[in-house]
Amino acid sequence: MIRAYKFLMRPTVRQGQALGEMLRDHCSLYNGALQERRDAYRHTSKTTVRYGMQSAQLKEIRAFDPERQGRWSFSSQQATLRRLDKAFAAFFRRVKSGQRAGYPRFRGVNWFDTVEFPKDGDGCRWDSTSHDPVTRVRLQGVGHVKVNRHRPVVGKVKTISVKREQRKWFVVLTAEQEQPEPLPATGSVVGIDLGIANFIADSHGGFVDNPRHGRHAAARLEAAQQALSRFPRRRAKDRTANHQRAVEQVAKLHGKVRRRRLDHAHKTALGLVRAHDFIAHEDLKIRTMSKAPAPKPDPDQPGTFLPNGAAAKAGLNRSINDAGWGVFLAILNAKAESAGREVMAVDPRNTSRRCPECGHTAKENRPTQEKFHCVACGHTAHADTVGALNVLRAGLVRRKAQPA
Q1: Phi, psi of 239, deg, nearest 5
Q2: Alpha carbon of 400 to those of 4, 351, 392: distances in Å?
Q3: For residue range 51-91, what is the model confidence (pLDDT) as tens digits?
Q4: Is 113 in contact with 165 (CB distance < 8 Å)?
Q5: Residue 154 CB neighbours (<10 A)
Q6: Alpha helices in 44-97 (DSSP H)
Q7: Dihedral (CA of 89, 156, 142, 132) sign
Q8: pTM of the prediction?
Q9: CA 199 to chain centroid
Q10: Nearest 5°: phi and psi at 202?
Q11: Any residues with CB less than 8 A from the CB of 293 and at least 6 apart, and which?
């Protein structure tokens, strides 16, 4: 299995400048390759330029511009071109499936924040022999940079990436490991229902509160964004010191919310994986759930629209995104795989409307957001607990029906 490690780097002033130049030059390579593809398609009879053709030009590019392109790792530049190729592959895939396409865009210096080295030892070298908390990583064109290794790296390092977040630099390693020993069996199974009022309701009647990190930081974030809006739009190199501080303050608050959300997701997922052998959850289509409602044209007055509840739906979408269900489910599946647990997604339809006692399904069974009252047998419970219980039963049925 492949596991990722992320460590804080401690570059010197000169190394920090070199890292910034490395990002800038790889960004320039990315934009140049994108421009070549656009020009070839528009002006040369719709010719398609592919990764192999652009990779073959790297030697000439490095020889033509040795100060900017020739000093960096050849493999990292190939990885940047592959990054562009993946963007185009995703674009064409969305076009064929009828989704919103989103043509690949040019990257500004602040939008291009990662350089990947596809192989340890090719333009980079991780010091795997050191056991000190402070170790080093060698990067071509930068030197040996100090790294705060807060936990040991297990397995063979495969790829190394350098990432900038605001004014901090991180190194991200992927290591190939053997499958770890599964956790001892507990004999417990659970179904979970994800929500807004409660982040999780489980089939045993337990609840995990929704921390609402985004809502709690909304006032400070609004003030920071208002302060930023007072400055005219400028390129990064033309910003004043006050403008740059305002930009960094907004980014800092967003980063703090993101880290808190990740921390909560990791701790909640770890608790579930340690306590239960089998976990069932709803197969939520989060992207569809958080879509804005379609406009309603007024048939009597062309050019005008009828109310469609967009304002209320915007608030719900904001709460869904703040909860971070997608991030939590991804973390839950990763931790379950490492621990030898089983996670299964089930159809979410009518899970909160079906009575767990008699099986009667009706919209009237759920008179309020929290209350469940079966109109057939009179069973009463919390609606989220009922949903979690039905999710568990559906998961167990699907688990039993799967071929061995």
Answers
A1: -75, 145
A2: 33, 19, 12
A3: 999 999 999 999 999 989 999 999 999 999 999 999 999 99
A4: yes
A5: 12
A6: 51-56, 58-64, 74-97
A7: positive
A8: 0.85
A9: 19
A10: -105, 170
A11: 308, 309, 310, 313
